[in-house]
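Notes from the 1:1 (GR / supervisor)

We went over the backlog. Supervisor wanted to see one worked example end to end before approving the batch request, so GR pasted a single chain during the call. The sequence is below; no edits were made to it. Supervisor asked that the structure be written out right there so they could see what the output format looks like.
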Amino acid sequence: MTQKPNSPQDIERSGRPEFAPAVDIYDAAEEIVVVADMPGVSASALDVHLDRGDLSIRGRVTAPTAEGEAVFQEYQVGDFVRDFTLTEDIDPEGISAELTNGVLTLHLPKATDRKPRKIQVKVG
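Structure output shown during the call:
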């Protein structure tokens, strides 16, 4: 799995600011696990999409509302965007995702024929 060229710095593609969420990637025996920090994103505003080996994560944050007119404003709301390219080592049919308290966890199972295995040596 490789990261596509959107870096952790702030980026902007639409009228709203876009941020690359911080991610941790773990290589376990049976799967690759991607943990992305996406505070403020609800499950209904989250899109995880796989197309021809390109995995994209998009999350939209809704701005909080307050009464009155803003006289000073530093808080900025935007969207989270991150893209990765998957290798053939990943089984695309088995990918799953869960969102808990603003943390997205993706489980990318390794393809069965690509998992490391021990070769039995016969003595002749």
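Supervisor's comment: Confidence is low (pLDDT under 50) at residues 7-12.
Batch request approved.
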